[in-house]
Amino acid sequence: MSKVTKTLAVTLIKSLAKKTENHLANVRGLGLRRINHTVHVQDTPENRGMINCISYMVKVEQIK
Fold first, then answer.
1. Is the pLDDT of residue 64 over 80?
2. Does residue 2 sit within a domain?
3. Does residue 25 lie within any of the structural domains?
4. What's the confidence (pLDDT) of residue 2?
5. Which range marks the domain in which residue 56 is found?
6. Backbone angles phi, psi at 28, to 5 degrees
7. Which letter, b or e, does each residue of 25-49 get, where b requires 16 or more Cβ atoms within 10 Å of its Cβ?
8. Residue 1 lies in a domain
9. pLDDT for 32
10. Other beta carbons less than 10 A from residue 15's beta carbon
């Protein structure tokens, strides 16, 4: 039985300047590097938690 995992496209839309260390760590943890950089991550509770913490800085789209 193959389990299909959903994928999210996460795009950084705001600058990292003057952000808290926790928010910067979440951005780095998701693999985002610069404004308009998009990464594809699995839809897991861990990734959702990081996205929720920095929701004002990212745009999220569901892929599958």
1. no
2. no
3. yes
4. 56
5. 7-62
6. -65, -40
7. ebbeebebeeeeeeeebeeeeebee
8. no
9. 97
10. 10
58 found inside a domain = yes
**4 Cβ contact list (under 8 Å, min separation 6):** 64
Cα–Cα distances in angstroms (integers) from residue 59 to residues 1, 8, 44, 45, 51, in the given order: 32, 10, 17, 17, 9
Model confidence over 8-63: pLDDT tens digits? 999 999 999 999 999 999 999 999 999 999 999 999 999 999 999 999 999 999 99
- Using the predicted structure, report yes or no on whether residue 1 has a pLDDT greater than 90: no
Q: What is the CATH number of the domain that holds 35?
A: 3.30.1390.20
Contact 39, 59 (CB under 8 A): no
Give how many domains the chain has, as a whole number.
Answer: 1
This prediction has a pTM of: 0.89
Identify any residues that bridge with 59 across adjacent strands, giving them in sequence order.
11
Query: Which residue is listed with tokens 């910067």?
Result: 24
